[in-house]
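Sample intake sheet
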Amino acid sequence: MAVPVVYVDVPPALEAELFGDGLEQGLRGIGRLVRKGDGGGRLQADVLVTGWGSEPLPERLAPEDNLRLVVHSAGTIRSLVPQALLSRGVRASQASAGMAQSVAELALYMTIARLRDLDRIDRVMAGAHDWRGADFGLARTLADSTVGVIGASRVGRAYLQLSVAAGSEVLVYDPYLDEQEAKRLGARLVPLETLLGQSTVVALHAPVRRETRHMLDAPRLALIPDGGVVVNTARSALVDTDALLAEVRSGRLSAALDVFDDEPLPLDSEWWQLPNVLLTPHLGARTWHSRRAQGSIAVDEVRRYLTGRDLRHEVLPETYDLMA
C-alpha cells in the first residue's frame, strides 16, 4: 500500500514558526512529507497543509487529483477552500482555535487602553514630552463597564471570559447561542439592539456573512451610549466604516481597530489622524503561543486523519458559513 503524501503549501519561514520539526515527527511511520520543489502537485497529495499566502483551491478536482483533506494552519478556510469542494467529498479542517487566546488578549488590551486613554497618553508623552498635557482626566475601568460581545466565536468566548474575570457585566449577542450556554459563560444573552444600547464597550467577534456584513451601520452605532468604545479584531466588513469614522471623528465614540477595509491601511486614511482611535496592523494572532498552537492542531489533525480517527476541528458543508 502506498504511503500517504502530505503536501505542505506554507512558506518556509512560517512553516518553521508553526511546526518546528513537529510535522516530520508527527508523520513518522504514517505519511510522507513533501514541499514545493520536491516534485508533484499539491492536488495530487492525499493531504494538503495550507497557511497564510496559500493559493485558493478550485471548486472541482481533476480525475488525476488525489486530494482528500485540507488542513489549514491559520483561521477561516472560506477564502481558500470553496464550499463546493467540501460538498464533493474533500474534507477540511482549520486551526483557528489556536489563535483564540492571542486575539482575545489583544482585544482585551485594546479595550483597557481605550477606556484609560493609554494610547493617546503615550503619543503625547512620547511625541511632545508633555507630562501634564497627557492628563485627560478621570478614566474608566473594566470593572465599572458593561461589555457587549457580538459573536460567541472561540475568540468571542475567550474575550468574554477575560472580561468577566475583570469584573465587567457582560452582554452577548449571537443567534446561535442559547441562554443556558450564555449563563454558563457568565454573560447575559440579549438582542443586538439591547446590547448596543447598554454597553460601554462593543467588541466584535462574529464571522462575515450576508446578514452580518455592515451589521453595525449608522443607526445601530447611534444606539451606543456617548463615550462608548468599539473594538474590532474580527473583520472590518462587520462595520460600516464610514459610519464609524463619522462617530469617532465627532468624538462621541472611540475605537480600537486591528482590521480594515484596505490592508495595509492607506497612508491617506483619516484613521491615522484621529486622537481617539487605537490602531494595530492585523496582528491579533501574531504571537509565539498562537503559532505553536496552530501548528500543533494542524499536525494532530493530519495524524488523526491518516490513522483513521475523527477530526477535532473539521469544517463541514453545513457549518462552512458559520466559521469566522
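Comment: The two ends are 38 Å apart (CA to CA). The first helix runs from residue 12 to 19.
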